Amino acid sequence: MNELLNQEFSLRKVIQIQKDLHINHEERLFIIRTLPFEYLTKALQPLSSFAGKKLIVDYSDYDTSINLGLKDNSYSIYLYWMDWRLYMDKMEPKSLLEWLKTRLSEVDTTKPILINNWPLFWELDEKQYAASVSKRGWIYEFNYLLETLKNDFSNLEIIDINLLASQIGMSSYDERNDLVSNYPLSNQLTLQLSRHIALNLIPAMLEPKIKAIVLDLDNTLYSGVLGEDGIEGIQLTEGHVQLQRVLKRMKENGILLALSSKNNEQDVFEMLEKCKDFLLYKDDFTFIEANWNSKADNIRLMAEKFNFDVSAMLFIDDNPAEIAHVKEQIPTIHTLMADATGKETVHRLLNYPYLYSRKKDNSADLRQKDILANQKRVELASKAGDNNSYLASLQMKINIFEGETQHLQRIYELGQKTNQFNLALQRFSEGEVQKKAKDSAYKMYTVTLSDMLNDSGIIGTFIVKIDGELAIFEEILFSCRALGRKVEDASLYLILNELINKGIRQVKFVSVEGPRNTPALDWLNNIYTSPIIADIIAALKEKLIDYPAEVCLQNERDNK
Fold this sequence. Notes:
single chain; six-stranded mixed β-sheet; 21 helices; alpha/beta
């Protein structure tokens, strides 16, 4: 399967490998086009199989007005595939963008939307002219303005043809193809675009992101075997430098890193200390398991410490036997084969599904600190006489915010990332979250948590629809980092008391059984004694006897 992720790959190989891939989901994609898209579909559909998806593709007619009148809302994604050359001589970039906004509003904007920009050099003689006397000036401005559309449409992402074309060079343009079918992109660029859409963009728009990468060391992060060659004998090739740089940036943007290596622990620590040419340092790895245990056992241990499911982890190793053993023992884990030079490992990693970042993750450092703090909490719990004594020693502070608009992005992130304590598995899009926040029928609660060891930030949310005297909890989400401290009980208890004071008498919880949300379902079964709000408050009150945390309700007005 790694051939699909390499820098160079072929359509023949894609179609050949598709037969061995397992399909988990069917997704419907609607193409709004003024440019032929069928060239991409040939590879797009089999490539989507690698991400476990069967892609059903429907097309609009060719129409420069892109006036759809679309009534079918069953599509998973809308993709605008535009030949922007058709508009260059008719509209200035700013006017085109305003017109485009009105057209985008015709589709269901709570669904993901993809739209392409345009490559700067699509004419062979472009280098002979300054941008002011060529179409490049128009394209510069339009591509920049197109990026700003994401400020108005939170579910929108750009298919960056310009970026991929610049990486390929002039061979990305096919003049003959353009003359024959009005399609100027070369086969090479078309194949790269198909992979980018199928393996990077679509998974990022529809599925949770991988949370952690577990790496081997020998012949994976460097060339050589530490136990045999010693620190002086291992080499950091150019490919391995690139790999470490890519991993460093992923870590800075929210993906946790860990090591599982069959080496002596002290040798590994010494290497990470002494190898000054390494871009990754000891502190970049949340956990390091350097021992002779099974790597599957090490990964299970790390998943327990991370407090999330192994299905949110990617394991990278150069040894096919290790990959096969881990996959056999942990079928739901993601795996990736490293190559000896590190060069192809970089491309395989960059093309792997569920790693694409749409936005900067500003809570990455906080999350790693909280996971490490959890190890200290485990130690405190083991020494405490009872659970309440342990919780009291943490000096917890829980703040519950109502209608805090600055928390909407985090509500969306929790829905995408949370698997264990995700009661309804709704996975609302950014547009859906924003729409509910503006709807007076909804109450959006967010929960923050801090203790003597760390500030965990926003770790939970309740999305509640009010219908007369009924409160419908459409979604309840809590980060796995916060579980085990009754934060969900204390938060719901305070929220229900607030609601009963406003005349709410009954409660309904929307819940769906999924592959990994048993903790959330068990919690609901434990506290849901009846639909009467007073009965649930009584059940929670009994659970929270002598609960030592400080719990406060805020609202948007209090924070202005």
